[in-house]
Amino acid sequence: MPATPRSTKSRPPNPGSQSALRHLNQQRIIECLLNGPSTQAELSRQTGLSTATISNIVRIMQGAGLVSTEPTTSSGRRALNVRLNSNGALAVGIDFGRRHLRVVLASLSYHIIAEESVELPLGHHAEDGIAAAVDLLDKLLLESGVDRSAVVGAGAGIPGPIDRRSSTVAQGAILPEWVGIHILERLEKALDMPVFVDNDANLGALSEVTWGPHGGVSNLMFLKIGSGIGAGLILNGAPYYGTVGITGEIGHATIHEHGLVCRCGNRGCLETIASTTTMIELLSRGRGEPFGPDKIVSDALARDSATLRVVDDAGLAVGRALGNVANLINPEVIVVGGPLAGLGNLLLDPIHRGLVRHAVPVVGETTHLAMSSLGARAEALGAAALVFQHAGIARA
């Protein structure tokens, strides 16, 4: 299984300034402490820094609440043991959407330290989205009083396939303006820290088995219904990526052979029937002003008949596609996420009907269908979990 497109550097470069050197040295100490507590002498040997430098940096980190120290003995001599606090090292989770950006700061103990989302213009280019992410991260760090050296790295989710051989955004992304860019390289240069990237649906799946209630599930599928429809897979306890990383493209499963032409070039794909874009197009006919997924949710909950019909048709189509997938991989749980999660059973019920109808009976009966409890933050939380995963940190 190919590894997640990951950082091309283990630490930011040293441009030569005193503050940058201190940041670099703190990051090196944090990386050592991720493997467990160490004495200052051990940290000196591992990093190559002098014991005096280690002592000074540890004192600064302790004052900032990043580490705690306690007396110990080493080789019969008195020593100072240094331990990384549970909230001392942080990960950044970034979720890039077609119209939104969400950034979270999360601690080693899987607690959210800070979080914010902003709207992005439709059709924004990669440099604009990345610049917005840098600005939002700087804002969260400042408002939280967090030193940048405490950040282990950043995870980022992209709404589209990523070619894992080259870490480039592949054709078929909801953000066509991003296709072909080396997303890992761009993000690392802009954020100046180790970065790990993945498809947003894959991160949604990861969030469900780390932050969510499905930590004990070995075979899980996360289905994101939004402007596009994609799936992330956890199989035998690990994310599944296939040969080049293009997996979970369930939005391009053919539902109606002679249906509408999809953006992928085929006809009758699931996205042409059940994406939020299609639902909005159907429901906006005759209405004077545009609206978004939140309006679909509110109108459906208010029992608007047209909205309920569109949601029901979409759910049945999704269930049909899921039935075919379930027959193939036999997941224990399928979690539905995305901006329509607030619909609850209004969406889950038709999906379940479609699943049971098109899956082998025993598969349909034993596949648990659930709505994500993580809401709009699922992908960003999965991105933070990706950083912890690559740092060798498992959830306690």
Helix-strand blueprint:
Blueprint: H1 18-33, E1 38-39, H2 40-47, H3 51-63, E2 67-74, E3 77-84, E4 90-96, E5 100-107, E6 112-119, H4 126-144, E7 151-158, E8 162-163, E9 168-169, H5 183-191, E10 195-199, H6 200-210, E11 220-225, E12 229-235, E13 238-239, H7 271-274, H8 276-283, H9 293-301, H10 305-329, E14 333-337, H11 345-358, H12 361-366, E15 368-371, H13 378-390
Structural class: alpha/beta
Poorly predicted regions: 10-15
**Percent of residues in beta strands?**
15-25%
Radius of gyration: 23 Å
Mean pLDDT: 88
Strand count, sense and barrel status of the largest sheet are:
5 strands, mixed
**Number of E strands:** 15
Give me the number of helical elements.
13
How far do the termini sit from each other? 25 Å
Q: Give the strand order of the largest sheet, numbering strands 1, 2, ... along the chain.
A: 6-5-4-7-10
Order of helices and strands: HEHHEEEEEHEEEHEHEEEHHHHEHHEH
